[in-house]
Amino acid sequence: MSTIRLLEVVVPCLRYHRARVFYEKVLGLEAVSSGRSHVFFACGGAKLALVDASGGDPMVRPSGHGVYLDMEVDDLNALKRRCMKERIELLDERRDEHGKAITLRDTEGNLLNIFQAGTVS
């Protein structure tokens, strides 16, 4: 049996340029390659791709339910400050024995759960 490997997570965006600014400016991801209607970000060993879905192709058009991304950061407090500065609503904020996390929506309405491991303040 062949092994299936994750190539990338693709997030279709109706407002591609707005979403790209969010992922670069608020989340601090660095684009590793891009074209007129797509961008790839390195994301801790995986790739995250945003694609412009405004053309109406039903294969890449958002369903309205979106994706749910689990991401990890080293400094959740710094990310929270950037979110506050950009007026991004935090939907949830929690802490447990594994670390702390926040949940928010990107500009396309997709849920992002962002976690920082460890005993943190």
Question: Which keywords apply here?
Answer:
single chain, 121 residues, alpha/beta, 2,3-Dihydroxybiphenyl 1,2-Dioxygenase, domain 1, four-stranded mixed β-sheet, 2 helices, 8 strands, globular
Written account of the structure:
- This protein has helices spanning 16-26, 76-85, and strands at 9-13, 31-34, 38-43, 46-52, 68-72, 90-96, 99-105, 111-117.
- It has 121 residues and is α/β, with parallel strands linked by helices.
- It has a single domain, classed as 2,3-Dihydroxybiphenyl 1,2-Dioxygenase, domain 1 (Roll), CATH 3.10.180.10.
- It has a 4-stranded mixed β-sheet with strand order 1-4-3-2, covered by helices on one side.
- Strand 7 and strand 8 (111-117) form a beta hairpin.
- The longest helix is centred in the first third of the chain and has 11 residues, at 16-26.
- The relative contact order is 0.21.
- The model has no long low-confidence stretch (mean pLDDT 85).
